[in-house]
Amino acid sequence: MTDYILEMQEITKTFPGVVALDKVSFRVKCGEIHALVGENGAGKSTLMKVLSGIYQKDSGKMLLNDKEQFFNGVNDSENAGIAIVHQELNIVKNLTVSENIFLGSELRKSGVKNSVIDKGRQYTKAKELLDIVGLDVSPNTQASRLSPGQQQMLEIAKVLNKDASVVVFDEPTSSLTEQETDKLLALLKKLQGRGMTLIYISHKLSEVFRIADTATVLRDGKTVITKLMGDLDENELIQHMVGRELTNLYPKLAHTVLTGTSALEVANWSVSHSSITGKMLLDDINIYANKGEILGIVGLMGAGRTELALSIFGADYKNTSGILKINGKEKKINSPKDAIRSGISYVTEDRKKLGLVLGGTIRSNVALSNFNKLSRFGIINNNKEITEVARYSKELRVKAPSIMQLAKNLSGGNQQKVVLAKWLMTNPDILIVDEPTRGIDVGAKYEIYTIMERLAAEGKCVIMISSEMPEIIGVCDRVYVMVEGRVAGELTDEDISQINIMKCIQGGKANEVS
Amino acid sequence: MRFRETINARIKDNITQVMLVIETAIIFGVFQVLTNGTFLTSRNLTNIMMQGCVYSIMGIGIVFVMVSGNMDLSGGSVLGFLTAVGATMQVAGQGTLITILTMLLAGGAIGVWQGVWVAYRNLPSFIVTLTGMLMFRGLCLLVGGGATVGPVSKSFGAIGADYLPSFFTDKYYDSTIIIFAIVIVITIVMMFESRKNKQKYALPVESWPKFYGKILLVVFALILVAAILNSYQGLPYALLLLGALGCVFTYVSRNTVFGRYVFAIGGNSEATRLSGINVKKITLQVYILMGFLVAVASVVYLGRVGQATASAGKDFEFSAITGCIVGGVSTLGGIGSVPYAILGTILMTGLDNGMSLMNLDATYQYIVRSLVLLFAVAIDVASKTEKKS
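The joint structure predicted for all components is written out below.
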């Protein structure tokens, strides 16, 4: 009898042309939190899909409690006690919290009323589960009214209901705020205390260090190392992930802010809610950004950061009021086209939904915003298009066999680079990037910071919206903290720290109360 | 096991081509047997191509509409209305040119009408064009008075029914041969040029055997069509028009900014909007293009039939849409090609024609056609959505 609850031995999985997993070994002890880390494309997701039975392994052995398992689908693995909390939440928003928890495993009444749902029993059971995960809402609340963080908790409650002994968490914090993340991590510790075994996949190494007992690193479909967290430090872990020593997480900042040369300025900028009268999405915002500056905008989810970007970009919120100045001159921007013409580009938050035509090629995606340069009289200059797109994707080091590769077949980091290439080709003076590094690996993050740094050094203005404090602190010259549609504070240089930002956020809320 | 997976992947990647070949083989084979050989005669095949012209021209418009992620169900009714307008003008003694211009203009105006509702009022295109289907059938009855209007003048009829005259000899149709020879040469030259250009920029190209195979196939198909036409009465003007429109709109879809925008909107309309493209304007333009092409189809149809009836164009949109889907245009938007859509619509004309030749009752014709569309869409959806467990 070993003390491993789960053993995956020499798992190999190939797809036509690619070895996704090459004799991967992955062993998880009973009752531990085991982190699975690696860059995008390292094979983490594939391994978890083999574990849950979505993919069938080509060779290797999978033992659960020392018994060999053959899963032919999610049902098999769930019956064996393995559950996965996916990165994309599977919540049916128009159902209530309790209906979501019991979806597919509804509690029924006994006897002749067997096909009738026992709402009373569901309510009580749901309440119990919600108490465990610390979600303080009624089971009858409609799921659409929950915040992303609460939805994540609901997802966990669903898993608890399945009575799983091994639970996999795939990037559970990627859309959570700092506070929600803290809450989630505390919950995971609590679940561990209840005897559950957790597998934790995350790009955020700080979280891994906070909660995991053991870590396994995958790289290029192979297991690199499995080690106790106590014997590891962050640098060593990163080194194992990227396979080389990465001396810095952030590029050296060499640009100089051209103070007093305002590239973008908004004054008395307000956006009212389209349907709720009196509610302000943005309330009297007054900010500026200099040439040669990397300006950060931080805040909790729903603080109005994306709304600010979209309204400046002319993409949404027709009921906007206020003055917008570019290079000191007042401008009216009514559409993204106007914005691009005025030198503003906006890299959207959700690259799959808002940034890319996934079924299109790299070529068509990058060219999309740039046909004013790549065509004459509406006819595309194919040669110019190909050479320009190739030049930009080479410059940004997009990894793909050719520019005819479909966007949906690229990894997250490469997809983000394609979006960036599209916007860099428009040659913007002001580049707004919204959560540019969400869900991409350390190496690609570094490259994206480098691009931002280069733009600033060229005297351009970069505005970064981000929920990841370390990157804000690592690359920004100046930061605005937003709280509930208002600017609650401004921090510069050395003052930019996690503590100061949190203070601003808390202070901003306190003001509201008084 | 591995071998089967590769084969399956290959089929999935080329699902349109594979299905076209299978369907052609089935339709031609089955009808040849069931009609005791009347199906595969040069007379009937020419006939199919001429009938198919109307569907195909409408189909070109459908390609743009569907690729942009929309739908148009009104094509048949609009065609009925426009033929009624054209025939009425002809009977009233208006000239051929002015009649055609009026029809084209009216088609464009109908496009504006439907396009504004879809693009600027955000109504589902399915509903807007469903109302259009009723409205223009009603207007067709209003203009034609429910009766048959005709005949059209000789010069008008020529567009839909006449054949290109011979240049030098009356023994065979030299004009057809010359035109097809030119087309074949241009096609080969262009295929080589495009391959050379791709290699120059290090873009992926197909292997030499596949490339030569493709050329041989295209040339063989063109020669086959030329031979069929030549053993009957030569090249009809309508087919020449379809060929020209096919080339122009293939080019528009691939090499113009408008074409790229249409594909991008169908792929992800929100991302396209945020890339600085006026999605509403492009959508309106797509509907204007559709209206214009239906007008061209109406001119050809009226020329061939010579008169307008109350039920003219009924179910035409069905054949055009089915043909496009069989030709690989995705119901989910973002994917489609003009040449394959033309092949698809001609094939569907073959199906209709074969069933008529067999004297199959209309009852069963409806059922067969509905099943063909259903299966075509099922194949499209199955091949384009990832397998979910």
